[in-house]
Amino acid sequence: MMAMAAHEIEALIKAGIPDAEVEITDLAGDGDHYAARVVAESFRGTTRVAQQRRVYDALGGRMGGLLHALQLTTALP
């Protein structure tokens, strides 16, 4: 199974959350373990859980499959 590239993860998140600023870090250098920081004004008024769910929804079920580990941080601008 091919791992996902950082730019693919960023593109998926931005497609699902158009106002998001996305910063992806490859934690292990293996293309398999990433940290993502997603900052979006549209998160305002939502819980941290709801924000993270939006990111996971944007990734379309790739968590645990193509994307093994994603350390996710969400924030407001």
Account of the protein in words:
By secondary structure, the chain is α+β, with helices and mostly antiparallel strands. Helices cover 29% and strands 26% of the residues. It has helices at 6-16, 48-58; strands at 21-26, 33-39, 69-75. It has a three-stranded mixed sheet with strand order 1-2-3. Strand 2, helix 2 (48-58) and strand 3 (69-75) form a beta-alpha-beta unit. The longest helix has 11 residues, at 6-16. It is globular, with a radius of gyration of 12 Å. The mean pLDDT is 89.
Describe the secondary-structure layout.
Blueprint: H1 6-16, E1 21-26, E2 33-39, H2 48-58, E3 69-75
Parallel strand pairs: 2-3
Antiparallel strand pairs: 1-2
Helix pairs in contact: 1-2
The low-confidence parts are none
Rg, Å, rounded = 12 Å
Tell me roughly what share of residues is in helical segments: 25-40%
Strand content: 25-35%
Number of strands: 3
Major sheet? 3 strands, mixed
Q: Count of helices?
A: 2
